[in-house]
Amino acid sequence: MPKITVDGQSIEAKDRQMILQAVLDAGGDLPHYCYHPGLSIPASCRICLVEVEGIPKLVPSCQTPIRDGMVVHSKSTKAVANQKQVMEYLLVNHPLDCAVCDQAGECHLQDYSYQYGRSQSRFEEDKAKKPKKDVGNHIILYNDRCIMCTRCVRFTREVSGTSELYVDGRGHKEEIDIFPGQPLNNKLSGNVADICPVGALLDKDFLFKQRVWFLKNTPSISPADAGGENIYLAHNEGKVYRIKPRFNADVNQWWISDDTRYSYHALSDERRLTVATKRHLGAPAAAQFAHAVTAAVAGLKAAVTERGQGTLYAVLSPMLSCEDAHLLGTYIRSLDPLATLVLGPVPTGQTETFKNSLTGKQTFAIQAEKVPNRKGIERILTLLGGPTATFADLTAGSLKVSAGWVTGGYLTNWVTPDTKLPQGFTVIQDTLVTRLSDSADVVLPAPFWAEKDGCWENHAGKIQAFAAAVPPPDNAVQEAQVFWHLLGHPGMFNATAYRQSLPDPFPATASPTANEAKPVPAFEFAEL
Ligand code: SF4
Ligand code: FES
Questions:
Q1: Helical spans, DSSP H, in 163-311
Q2: Which atom of ligand 1 is the closest one to the Cα of 195?
Q3: pLDDT tens per residue across span 510-528
Q4: What is the 3-state secondary structure (H, E, C) of 442-485?
Q5: Radius of gyration for the chain, computed over Cα atoms and rounded to the nearest angstrom
Q6: How many whole angstroms separate alpha carbon 253 and alpha carbon 245?
Q7: Is the C-beta atom of 90 inside 6 A of ligand 1?
Q8: For residue 175, which ligand has an atom nearest its CA?
Q9: How far apart (Å, rounded) are the C-alpha atoms in residues 316 and 175?
Q10: Among 125, 124, 30, 131, which Cα is nearest to 83's?
Q11: Which tens digit of pLDDT belongs to each residue from 387-397?
Q12: Distance between the two ends of the chain, CA-based, in angstroms?
């Protein structure tokens, strides 16, 4: 492995790596704007120039490959003078509007201005003023904040392959723009706001909602499809405000789809189930969560007593975590060893692929399956063994079952006009009000993925853990917590410990993340 020395520190680098990336990989930092590890390297912003011993002029660290034994100086008089000059030049036309800019707190221009900028401007002329532009459904462009790094243009050419953005004009009249009649509406469009190093491209969805320094980031997984994109849920005081990509070289690299980015809106859906109910004199009546669970258990037990084994079923939603699903299956089989386990509906669209428009190489894919854990639930069904059926069998009425526990957790209403559950006793544990919850015998509010711990298996068989970022609404209790109690286990359900207790390969590939939310409150289980 080649070694280089940067500002007196020895760093191990990879063969043919650029100086800047070697420094970043080693945990260091060099100022940079136009460089992004997922894009081509134009070396146009010039702030990353460094001195290399043996080379008479400054070189761009983002575009200069390392050599074994190379000695690099980024804090020498020459290098620092360049950084200051570049900063002064970039700030000539940049508005001083940090106080009202959404990027403040995570802006590279602001950060480097503190480190390398002049405290006073020598520019006395009028700053160039450029108009704001609405460039797409999700993105707004504050053109006078742009530093022409061209990351956004390269993204639309090299990752989304849609090429909506381009550089218009020359010199100080240069502007980012969209081609006429071609707005930035591709399904990866939100990523341009992530990679814009300043507050020029902003996500309308997040605009003026929160100052970023109030936000905490909890690592999580996308619920939008089977891709398993790695994300951060950014939240404050129990509310999620945005979703950002989390780098994973094997899954989504630096990018996420817009479906993933805006999936958190489901958490505040006005159809959210927040009240447990049980039937009283033929009509649903609000009940304490524990009393509703008691009624659910009583109804299922009565059905088994009346009709014998094989009368129960459970619908394991592909939105459930593997832990939720395993505990639900285990519990239903503890009441009825011949209970039928059913994988819930799997809504499917088209697989959408994106290609680099210059090389034709595939860069990203949005999976056709619009649920995150079909594979994980199938793995659980195999693990549990025993009778299983498809959801189509269940709704067609071809199964001899008459009492069941149905889970949902989908981001939108999943119940279609054809969804007809078997006649008999029904428990619905779901996140949104649906036609099924309106007619169920017992309804239990459930949390969304952002409100609980667990793991999902993506389309490629990768099992990935996610952690609760925010607490669930009052009265919503994680599915696994309910079955944990019903199976007689004491205390709080712990997803990581439970996952590790399952047979391989569950613990082998899951990577648990920290739970930053308050634990889901246990509920008092009333004795039957
Ligand atoms: S809009 Fe942002 S990403 Fe695009 S060129 Fe300007 S500064 Fe760079
Ligand atoms: S980051 Fe190297 S020139 Fe822009």
A1: 191-195, 258-261, 289-307
A2: 3
A3: 665 555 565 555 555 544 3
A4: EEEECCCHHHCCEEEECCCCCEEEECCCCCCCCCCCCHHHHHHH
A5: 27
A6: 8
A7: no
A8: 1
A9: 52
A10: 30
A11: 999 999 999 99
A12: 67
